[in-house]
Amino acid sequence: MAIKNKNIYVTQPHLPPLSEFIPYLEQIWENKVLTNGGPFHQELERALCEYLGVKYLSLFTNGTIALITALQALRITGEVITTPFSFVATSHSLLWNGIKPVFVDIDPRTLNIDPAKIEAAITPQTTAIMPVHCYGHPCDVDAIEKIANTYGLKVIYDAAHAFGVECHCGSVLNHGDLSVLSFHATKVFNTFEGGAIVCPDEKTKVRIDQLKNFGHAGEVNVVAPGINGKMSEINAAFGLVQLKHMGDVLEKRRTVDARYRKNLKSVPGILCLEGSGEKVANYAYFPILVKSEYALDRERLNEVLKEAGIIPRRYFYPLISEFSMYQGLPSSMPSNLPYAMQATKQVLCLPIYPDLCLEIVDEICSLIAAQ
Ligand code: T4K
Hints:
Elements: E1 8-9, H1 18-31, H2 39-52, E2 56-60, H3 63-73, E3 79-82, H4 89-95, E4 100-103, E5 126-130, H5 141-151, E6 154-158, E7 166-167, E8 170-171, E9 178-182, E10 195-199, H6 202-211, H7 233-243, H8 246-264, E11 270-272, E12 286-290, H9 298-307, E13 310-311, H10 324-327, H11 338-346, E14 347-350, H12 358-369
The structure holds ligand T4K.
């Protein structure tokens, strides 16, 4: 089924016409500002604040460095409550800060952290919660906020998947103390590599900007042990071009999502994960759950699709808590994470990206239905 012997991967980055990017490159060549908060960096920060409906945003070289810096910015220590059902960067950012991750189970309907499980995991060492808007489906932000307020905890959302997502009261990125985005090649909005921290006030933005620039506060003053997390001008310029195409990108993704749902609706044992009540979705992933009523298990379906040149991904398998550096934690015990254990065995993310032909989507669905 693969087109002209080319595999169909879980995603393919959106690239705007090269001709639109060239003038930006010419400008960089002309003014010779390559990095360190140059004009395109400043322009993209402004443009993203406006597009996303957020107050302050600091660009980063990637989402992982942004997560690590977000924890530094709020001086998080001790234990942080998080989800095992995510990309490993979520928990790695905690280990890089010497913080102990405490895993709690997910809600089986959304595959996001289950707020009802958070309270029992709080100890005197707990300082924060790091939930993930998995697949761009918003967490139960109100319930999480309530718990955080009751116990005086910070909330840092890993919003790597949640570019442009809106919940009941506007951008989901305005919830929590900080939200962290990824602009990796595989994301809805990409700058090749990139990321950002969204924050609510100027003081925090200044601290984040200092932290991502070695802790510099002026030429000869260093106020914190910072890192180099700056986005370069070339990535920022590319982001400005990408942003012009977001309307089209999201519409095409929406069409692919709708086609899968229509085609797979009546396939027994295949469950298309629903959104979690977002007002504006971004269709970042198309996760299905392969239930026991289906003819094959998830592993076998994955193989069948691969044999046909379709390369889905088991996001997220294994669970983070199953990797060797997390396995020994008491909260990693499978008995603590029954729904996450179930989801990691059933989930399969099917290809979704703006240029994916609907005929290919139809063929993928026919193959799934034919088993
Ligand atoms: N938090 C969460 C919840 C995340 O999901 C991520 C990243 C992060 C934090 C960290 O953000 P960053 O530091 O990455 O900004 C990918 C991505 O590398 C990673 O960014 C992403 N999450 C994760 C879910 O997926 P892989 O190992 O699956 O990527 P890879 O290279 O296998 O790519 C998948 C498919 O995409 C390929 O089969 C083909 C296609 N592809 C990929 C790349 C890189 C392309 O067509 N072109 C490309 O340039 O991790």
